Amino acid sequence: MSVVRGRLLVFVAIAVSALVLRLAVTSFSPLAAEIRDDLGFSTTVTGVFGMLPTVMFAVFGLATPALGRRIGLEYTALVAMTAAALGLVGRALAPETASVLGFAALAFAGMGIGNVVVPPLVKRYFSHRLAVMSTVYIVGVQIGTIVPAFAAVPLAEAAGWRVSLGLWAVVAIVAALPWIPLALRASRTAVPVPQHAERTSGRAWRSPVGRSLMTMFAGTALVSYTMFAWIPEVFADAGASAAFGGAMVGLFSALGLVSAFAAPSVCVRLRNPFPVVAVCAALFVVAFAGLLFAPMAAPVLWIVLAGLGPSTFPMSLTLINLRARTHDGAAALSGFTQGVGYVVASTGPLLFGVLHDATGGWIAPFGFLTAAVALVVIGGWGACKPRMLEDSWGTGDADRASHTESASTVSTK
Q1: Is residue 133 within a helix (H) or strand (E), and if so which, with residue range?
Q2: In this structure, how many other beta carbons lie within 10 angstroms of the beta carbon of residue 2?
Q3: What is the mean pLDDT of residues 45-56?
Q4: CA dist., res. 209 & res. 282, Å (int)
Q5: Domains and CATH numbers, the chain
Q6: Is residue 107 within 8 Å of residue 92, measured between CB atoms?
Q7: Where is the Major facilitator superfamily (MFS) profile domain (predicted)?
Q8: Residue 82 CB-half CA count within 13 A
Q9: Of 232, 228, 215, 204, which Cα lies nearest the Cα of 66?
Q10: What predicted TM-score, i.e. pTM, was given to this entire model?
Q11: CB-side exposure of 197: number of CA atoms within 13 Å?
Q12: CA end-to-end span of the chain
């Protein structure tokens, strides 16, 4: 396989895989009430469905680096897309609530693996084009988030909720196909790693780079997932209709495309992109103040500001590659950042609701989100400094990382 054809196939595989990484989340939410009525589960179970994505992203985010070391990044990507496809099909065909939950968990597991494995694949094959490929990857994730959210209800009205849920499995199947030849080629061309060459992943928590990037990602994800869950309720409490609240969620989601296009290039071009993090934090704070004190005075403005605040999300994903010297380092940093980050993020919607119920207002909940933004700033201060993970994650690890990279590089010829 020629270099050009090899890289083109990897490009297609990464681009289509990125589309899959949120399909199971946003294709379900708009149909949750209809599915609940059909299957007869409680609102508590609806809450379980809501928490399941971040929990599975966390669990499999932490497990993926070890899987990647054992079977290789390409085979890991194939496992991710296959699990997502099987989960999406099974969820659509499952006859009762427990099996729907089980197959949904399988789909989210595949997507959780994909979340972590794609950044080091970008690092391995496109280290000379990180800005472009990070943009392709992150834009793909955003498109895969937005399109199902808007298409779910029309598809369900035309063909039923099972077809609406199951149709997205086609994307996952298509995404799996290019990984088959890539995985086979990688297994044929990989150079065996000597027994004395210790693998370096699993040590990202030792490095201030790893801890800082995880903190930045966790704060951003917590705020974002909480906003997704609670924007409609905030506007409903202010007197707006359910349709208006839904439209604001759609606007909040769509603004992710703006940051997806801009953030990777900004991170690559700026030696220290922390000023961008500070601006994002300011946008969040102004948006929270507007939503708290005058939600209907300028609702579109508040949501635009809040929707641009999570530009620190694509920044975090881009920094995973920029702050690692090797694709092994990127895999370790990706797993730690997203695994622990999603654990933290999964608590956001719940704690926001608990604080609202306990106080009867929105001051405490938005104070909680402001504290999360402070974490973004603190983490961003450390993550944006121009330094490398492998230089600070343990004595001698930088040397072993360089040896591992040269020993395990996959030929693209």
Answers
A1: helix 130-159
A2: 9
A3: 80
A4: 23
A5: 1-190 (1.20.1250.20), 198-413 (1.20.1250.20)
A6: no
A7: 10-388
A8: 10
A9: 204
A10: 0.78
A11: 17
A12: 6
Q: How far apart are CA 56 and CA 376, in angstroms?
A: 23
pLDDT at 61: 85
Letter for the amino acid at 25? V
Query: Who contacts 18 (Cβ-Cβ below 8 Å, separation ≥6)?
Result: 118, 136, 137, 138, 139, 140, 141, 144
405 is written with which tokens? 């990279």
pLDDT at 16: 94
Residues 244, 370 contacting (CB under 8 angstroms): no
Kindly report the backbone phi and psi dihedral angles of residue 203, in degrees, each rounded to the nearest multiple of 5, phi listed first.
Answer: -115, 10
Q: Which of 312, 194, 230, 210 is nearest to 263 (CA)?
A: 312
State mean pLDDT over 50-69.
86
Token pair of 220 as six digits:
């951003």
Question: Rounded to an integer, what distance in angstroms lies between the CA atom of residue 79 and that of residue 84?
Answer: 8
What is the rounded CA–CA span in Å between residue 353 and residue 153? Answer: 26
376-379 contact pairs (CB < 8 A, 24+): 376/215, 376/216, 376/219, 376/220, 376/223, 376/277, 376/280, 376/281, 376/284, 376/312, 377/277, 377/278, 377/281, 378/212, 378/215, 379/211, 379/212, 379/213, 379/214, 379/215, 379/216, 379/217, 379/218, 379/219
114: amino acid identity, one letter: G
pLDDT score, position 400: 45
Helix runs in 270-347, H state only: 274-293, 299-308, 312-322, 327-346
